[in-house]
Every structure is written in C-alpha cells, then in structure tokens.
Specification:
IolE/XylAMocC-like, alpha/beta, two-stranded antiparallel sheet, isomerase activity, eight-stranded parallel beta barrel, Sugar phosphate isomerase/epimerase, TIM Barrel, Xyl_isomerase-like_sf
C-alpha cells in the first residue's frame, strides 16, 4: 500500500513519507511538483524515504504520450522523468494519454532508457483513454509489460461504463499499478474516503484477485480545494487494502 503525495500538498516529502509510514503504508507515490522536479537533489529525497521506512512506489509525472504536436518535446519529457525515477529508486513512472496523437513512436524512443534504468512506463486510464480497453491499446504492441504497462485508476474506467471485471480482463498482464479512490458518483467526481462513495471498490478487489503490485491512495486535494486532509481517506484506504490483501491470500 502506498500514499500519493497528491493528497499532501501542504506537506514536505519527508513529512508525507512519515505520514504514510505511520498509517501502515510501505510506499509513497511521488508527484512531480514543487520540491520534486527533474533537477532536484535526489539523495536528500532518498534519505527522507529511508528514514521513514518507505519505498518510492511510483513517480507520478504529467507527460502526455498522445499529446498533439511534435514528438520530440514529449520524448524529452519522458526521458527526464525516467531519469528522475531511476535516481529516486522508483520502479515506475505514471504518465497520461492526453490526446489522440500516436503514442507508439514516442514510447519506442524511450524503450532503451526504460530497459537500462529498469523502470516501467505506466499509462494511466485517464482523459482520452479512460478505460482499460483503451489504455492497453497504447502499450500492448510492445509486448514488454515489464517495461510498458497500465496504471488502473479505479474511478475512470467505471465512470465510462467499464466494470472492474472488464477492466481487469482487458489489461491482462499489462496491469502494473492500481489507484484506489472513491467519488460521490459518475457525474459528481468529488472524492470521498474509500467505501463512502459510488465506485465499486469491492468489485475492484474481486477483479484484482491474487494480483500483487502497488496499490496507492490518490486524494485529489489540489483539484478539490474543499477536501479535508488526507487522514480519514488514508485510514479507509488502508482498511480496504488490508481486506483485499486478506482475500487475495486466502
């Protein structure tokens, strides 16, 4: 279980790491924002994680592999994120689809860096490719799920009509990461603590089955300023994760 620093905009990386550890999390999903950037001193960040006793579960970048325009700016942004993930010890980099331009040439251009760094590119079920069926089409042609795969955000496939079972089946071996989150409903995506909203998280747990990988809580405080601190949502997410982990090991 990990906590995304999207939910802790008022905390430093070290403070977020201590909060995650105190809640029973093993990792921190590190958002590329503020003190975390491609030119940062990664040694201090790694020391902060080590002192808290958590790992870097993922680097949450904002590159868009399908963004309109020329390939090179996207490729350079991906390379910078891969390098930062490697320096921070993060096994994956989250990116968005973000358009309808072909992602294949851009991903292919950074495959050598992904292989050399041992980092996995994670395309999130988001924006223009919100379902598992849509997102997996961006990565499956490479036939390298250890290097190019999908991050399943619990909210977006469901609100676009894809059940958790359908998402899991569509992703197959390309499922690399799961973000647990809940919301008021399909049209009102205001976050609520896991278990208090309409997202079928029990169905997600059943669909995940015995899959083992990072699960993180994404609490979107920067996009919903009225949200309270992450603490209640984190407790609920850890409780959901513990139930899921128990089921998967039974």
């Amino acid at each position: 279980m990990a906590l995304s620093t999207l939910g802790t905009p008022d905390l430093s990386l070290a403070e977020a790491a201590r909060l995650a550890a105190g809640a029973g999390c093993a990792g921190l999903e590190i958002r590329v924002h503020g003190e975390v950037h491609v030119g940062m001193d990664h040694r201090a960040a790694r020391q902060a994680l080590a002192r808290a006793g958590v790992e870097a579960a993922c680097l949450a970048g904002y590159a868009k592999v399908c963004a309109p325009g020329e390939d090179e700016p996207v490729v350079e942004e991906l390379r910078a994120l891969i390098g930062l993930a490697s320096r921070l010890g993060a096994p994956g980099v989250r990116v968005f689809p973000g358009g309808d331009a072909p992602a294949g040439p851009r991903i292919a251009a950074v495959l050598p860096e992904l292989r050399a760094a041992g980092v996995r590119l994670l395309v999130e079920t988001h924006d223009t490719h919100p379902t598992g069926a849509a997102a997996v089409r961006l990565v499956e042609s490479f036939e390298e799920p250890d290097r190019v795969a999908v991050l399943w955000d619990a909210l977006h496939p469901w609100r676009h009509g894809e059940s958790p079972a359908q998402t899991r089946a569509a992703l197959g071996p390309y499922l690399a990461y799961f973000q647990v989150k809940d919301a008021v409903g399909v049209t009102d995506t205001t976050p609520v603590p896991p278990g208090e909203g309409a997202v079928p998280l029990d169905e997600c747990a059943a669909a995940l089955g015995d899959w083992t990988g990072w699960v993180s809580l994404e609490w979107e405080r920067p996009w919903y300023p009225g949200l309270g601190p992450v603490d209640a949502a984190l407790r609920a997410a850890v409780g959901w994760f513990q139930q899921y982990a128990h089921r998967s090991s039974a």
